[in-house]
């Protein structure tokens, strides 16, 4: 298939290309490979930069200088200077090539306390204001430049087509046209306009379109999952943002974590090289994602010529052992496993971007014009723009009797756990990666939704009370209830149904309580994606989606209250950039679908004064799960139903057990006989690190009913060599999302004793995800299962298992038993 050829506004400059030739000719192989390696600040010293000629560095979400989140611009600059100096040091006879530092400023500079945080992309999509996007890009570049960094990993140009995906809020729209309209604007905001002298000046940063390609198109909305769309759909839908980004002169593209028809993007030569570089004509650099190359078949994080050969130019390798990757890559280039022409092409692209970005002229980070100007972080003019974005992104779904806008002179009750909750209103990629657990101390200068409302009402002479649980002493004229999703980021944000807080009805109860007391209720819904809220809509008089608005909460009060003359203060303007579901299982609902049946169509949004015909009697029937059988068989001589067996080693290396043997770096699994031929599986861990074997499916399973009905996981097991260290049985819900029970003691006690049956009550599984700040309860996990049975060991172990099942009614509380 032929893809469109895109003409970038940034033209190839013969003088610049000649300069690249000149530099390339002077570089040793080691210096070239160094340009292709991007470690993380926690694992990179200035000496490393000299020794390995490192070309770029990143700080991951929540990763800050010296581990101090309250670092000032000067602290960032000190490190940026040290890195820059090391890269420019020619005392060892090496060529000076400035290092570049990349960061995730995805809705403002999320990693810096005090920065301006804009609403997330899904909200900006609702604003339908491309010029505003450009201005946000410009401000983001300014705030990045204060800390001396060079490069932003933004914009995300995913066209999210399954709202269960935990990164849906990073997507501007499900509609490719809107993503296309915005992507180029964001690039121009960050980098400056290609045709003028401000392009990639000292006031601008390099932009990245990510994640190439189809991150928003994975089967079941699983983060880092597999896209099964055909090529025409990639080209028409998922590539939309790249067209305008490349046109606008974007200098970098990030390869995605996902696969396309099972082939991982970091190793996808056809899409990275033939399509992106050759057919579309992208002449900038392709950077990898967070150790993402380690998912390429046959590769590991520290050994992956496949990715470079496929067209990756820079390994993003936050792994502390990145030096091994450097050494392996040098060796592979030397022996021809990676052709030298490919190395040269990668380095040529990197140098082209560095030259275009004027990194030599920009000089030492602390000497650049914006460097160290702390006052620009969260500057008033920047916050004004963010507040405008908040105002413009509000989408009004219901407004019975035109209750909105409210008079600020009334007696108003503000309730709900989102009212005065900065962490909730900023969402993911805010101060820390998942955005959880932050307080006002992390957002100096920010305004919560409550603070904005309080200010508006107080200055109008009204009365306003904050009461999270909705209790009051004097009956208010109206209640504003602010509630919705808690923060999350990649992986941790995936869900199986668009149900709010799986099973927890406290928000709905609050709405209903107030309504039953005869108080008009205005619901403000904080969310990263469309959710099924029919019941909440029925229980509210007005309902507005305010997304995750960021640090400038006052933008909401600007719109929901009338002005001093009792007129509309600001219009409500937002229009849905995503279709809104009528039932909780419409994650893949998108404009243009055959039989398109949304509750609110793409583009919907009431104006003030519109006649609202929604009513209070939307169907409240959510999802009726069929009652499940008493026994769920997972493995009976072979994996049952849609399940298969997968292995995972310590370096992201994975294999499917298709024939009768499969291996990864840390274990081998074979089919063996117990009673009949090949009715059991033997797993042998080699002691080289953690590894697992799992019964796995690509379709999330809702096993909630088993969890609720006192079920147990039951399996037969024979231990031939006891765990040398630890062993666990785990449930898995996607990358880095699992809960596990330690069974070291049980396995040790039956070593050499032949076949036994192990019973693990489901109630044994603890909360998951505490390492990431986001806690998921077992109730939540059992609604999201991809791997209902996983054996994990971190050292040697030799076991054989058979007859794996989940059985209702066996549990004895929360115990693990052998018989
Ligand atoms: C994310 C990227 C991000 C990178 C660096 C990855 O896990 O997928 O969007 O740019 O980390 O933090
Ligand atoms: C994220 C990083 C983050 C890290 C935490 C990655 O997937 O992209 O930004 O710091 O995980 O482990």
From TrEMBL:
EC category: hydrolase
Enzyme Commission designation: 3.2.1.21
Originating species: Cellvibrio fibrivorans
PANTHER family tied to this protein: LYSOSOMAL BETA GLUCOSIDASE-LIKE (PTHR30620:SF77), PERIPLASMIC BETA-GLUCOSIDASE-RELATED (PTHR30620)
Protein name from the UniProt record: Beta-glucosidase
Keyword Metal-binding belongs to the record: no
Domain Glycoside hydrolase family 3 N-terminal: 28-353
Residue ranges of every copy of the ExoP galactose-binding-like domain listed in the record: 650-806
Cross-referenced InterPro entries: Cellulose_Degrad_GH3 (IPR051915), Exop_C (IPR041443), GH (IPR017853), Glyco_hydro_3_C (IPR002772), Glyco_hydro_3_C_sf (IPR036881), Glyco_hydro_3_N (IPR001764), Glyco_hydro_3_N_sf (IPR036962)
GO MF assignments: beta-glucosidase activity
SUPFAM superfamilies, sorted: (Trans)glycosidases, Beta-D-glucan exohydrolase, C-terminal domain
Pfam families per UniProt: Exop_C, Glyco_hydro_3, Glyco_hydro_3_C
